[in-house]
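Sample entry (97 residues):
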Amino acid sequence: VSGSIDFRGRLAAGARVDVESHSGSVELLLGGTPDARFELESFSGDVRSRLAGMKDEVRSDGRGPGTSLRFTTGSGAGRVSATSFSGSVHVLPDGGR
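Predicted structure, serialized as tokens:
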């Protein structure tokens, strides 16, 4: 509930990842090129991804509270959901910050 979440690794084919923090940041450092649909959200922090091959990108318009980013890499066989109420959500290639 309270604290940051840091993950570093590769996603298996068809992986399903759900990460949630109420009061802390979320950082996912992913190796290789993930094959997944991503749904990233924060109520009061920034949301960003620097993964190569992002397609079908949809970002919230910023008119209300909160920020979201949805995109697909590869064929989208897996699913990654990362949410923070009070913190940033970042998805980066392993080794990048």
